[in-house]
């Protein structure tokens, strides 16, 4: 694998992890709605145990890594390089809008839609970075299973972000909220189960045992284990469902991005 885009990929997923961790711990506005915030305030909040400063610091580091990977790979693969950079910029902009939504400064329906938009843009950034990092074709016996797993994993991820955003903005839980919230939860679970089943089936029909094949299996297994824990935490406290939310988001992006890249690379093998 190419190291620079791989570093960018890791930092993008780490940024998604810490962003979800701030939500899972009930944080998000510890530094107000301004971004990135004064360095002194960042350090003070970080010393006080807040995760929000770490998320903002990782956002900057991911941006630097993506820019470096963009410049290093532009001539080799211009579409993926440009897609990675553009997606990350859009992710940063929608992340700023999430702060405004939490502060009640963003009008509906944008205050709800910005969450899944941010999630999918972060996933796109990660997928483009991973596509640049993987520099060889990877054969699979049933690549169509990867395509299905990628689609349903991305769908489940976006619906999960919508659920999180709806509860944060409207200050309601799934059980007492409007019917659309419960419908979204049902669709989220169904999409997640489809993604896990298709990914595991794709792994069974793999034509090798490389790192990407193993990542597909690990991510699918992680989602199967973490998903129910996240649901229990969400039902007990929608505002701060806990640490597993971050693991859930990271595993979702790992599953979707590895399936996307594995499918694309298998088509070229």
UniProtKB/TrEMBL annotation:
It comes from the Archaea. The keyword RNA-binding does not apply. Coiled coil: none annotated. The keyword Transmembrane applies. Keywords: Membrane, Transmembrane, Transmembrane helix. The chain crosses the membrane at residues 54-72, 84-106, 112-132, 144-164, 184-203, 215-233, 245-264. This is Respiratory chain protein. It comes from Thermoproteus uzoniensis (strain 768-20). The lineage of its organism: Archaea, Thermoproteota, Thermoprotei, Thermoproteales, Thermoproteaceae.
